[in-house]
Amino acid sequence: MHIALYQPQVPGNTGAIGRTCVGLAAELHLIGPCAFDLSDKAVRRAGLDYWPHLVWTLHDGPDAFVAWLGARQPWLVTKHGRLRYDQADYEADAVIVLGNEVRGLPEAWLERWRERTVAVPMLGPVRSFNLACTAMTVAVEARRRSGGFNGCAMPVINRCD
């Protein structure tokens, strides 16, 4: 599975989504430019101790990411998605793309992959959900629906008897 962030703006969201990727054995793709420093020093200072376990790629820009996609058909997450996030037919190697915190995804991408847009329903009066929370919600469901948890035993972490 691949989770891609379009020109991310908030380092905390990117860090949390990186943690999600490590936990779900997914690859993180950052579609540049990013609005923050990704150097080893900056990552260490941010306390991202799991970052060495993260498989990630920085694409120079949207064109480089689309070239990497090749024939892959991504799932785009947008509050105006045509499908509810839990109704999509995710593949084991699904590419899930989320827009940035300020501008979302490019209109041309939303049109190009219109039939592959998903949304997390919002029942209360909020403008949007946090990007990292949305990424986790969609990624866990994509992993579940594609059979990615089959045979996975849940560890007992804190057992109180």
How does this structure look, described?
With 161 residues, the protein is α/β, with parallel strands linked by helices. The protein has a single domain, classed as SPOUT methyltransferase, trefoil knot domain (Alpha/beta knot). It is built from five helices and seven strands; from the N terminus they run βαβαβαβββαβα. Strands 3-2-1-6-4-7-5 form a seven-stranded parallel β-sheet. The longest helix is centred in the last third of the chain and has 15 residues, at 131-145. The model has no long low-confidence stretch (mean pLDDT 89).
Topology:
Layout: E1 2-6, H1 11-24, E2 27-31, H2 40-45, E3 56-59, H3 62-69, E4 75-77, E5 83-84, E6 95-98, H4 107-112, E7 117-119, H5 131-145
Parallel strand pairs: 1-2, 1-6, 2-3, 4-6, 4-7, 5-7
What is the global morphology? globular
Question: Could you tell me the radius of gyration in angstroms?
Answer: 16 Å
The termini sit apart by 37 Å
Q: How many beta-strand segments?
A: 7
Judged by helices, strands and strand pairing, the structural class is: alpha/beta
- What's the rounded overall pLDDT mean? 89
CATH class: Alpha Beta
Number of domains: 1
What's the CATH architecture name?
A: 3-Layer(aba) Sandwich
Low-confidence stretches: none
Largest sheet, described in full?
Answer: 7 strands, parallel
